[in-house]
Amino acid sequence: MNPNHLLTFSVAARLQSITQAADFLHLGQPAVSGQLKILQDFVGEPLYQRRGHKLELTPAGEGLLEYANRMDKNFKQAIEYVKSLKQVNVGRLRIVSTMTVASYYLPRVVVQLQTLYAGVQVFMETSNTAKIIEKMPDFDLGFIEGPVDEKDLPSNYEVIPWQDDEIVLVLPENHVLTKEYPDTVPLIVFTKHQVIWREAGSGARQALEKALLESGIIAPVNIEVTGVSGVKESVRAGLGIGFASSKALLNEKKGLVARRINFPKGLIWHLNIIAPKPIIQSRVARVFIDLCREKENR
User: Fold this and answer.
1) What pLDDT was estimated at residue 120?
2) Domain CATH number, residue 128
């Protein structure tokens, strides 16, 4: 059964005329008659009979019309939905992000999106960089820290460079290193003090391990926690020194302080967006990416 034939049947039954149905559908009358004949042959019994210039449905036609009208209604609703999508005032945006980006970069962008397009629903999940790459087929956009090999992504996704951030050392405000190094600490401190490490899939940890490796420094891993909050609270409790995005320390009023790492260049890491290739991006995803770039340029 061809769905188009059911839609044609719905229109013809409503107008009670093949001629008017043809005009309404912008088809030739023979085309409409042909579709109805094919549908009737498929059913195996008459769906209508002619009464002068009008069509009169048979019991079989009346029964089938219920389903045809339901399909016609759904089709019209689908058209209206697509029209509304073109105006980006409805739809869903599924985001997966690292905890750092979700906590300190995305909230303002999400608020701006929903202020401009109140009907858009945003669903956000947090994970580490490694797991985000695995999960991308289930999401519209991913926000990660550090580089990613596009070979590891589904073929219809790409990496969009976004902005740079800096990883800083996180210390209790009374720690000995705060006096010894008032501005910047060398990488060697990670071998002299107990370190609160992020989980293995963390982009921040990968960036720090890369810097240590390039400097020929081996730092032991004794304590490992999940997330930025875990690092900050462990440091606050006196378990050791930690590291996190500079953004994570911006609103700290007391208890913790930050120091730059690896003078003079600091420990810079790159934030990236994983997105479907432009040809298959949803309008909502494109708008969100544009808003992210606006924030970056301010």
Assistant:
1) 86
2) 3.40.190.10
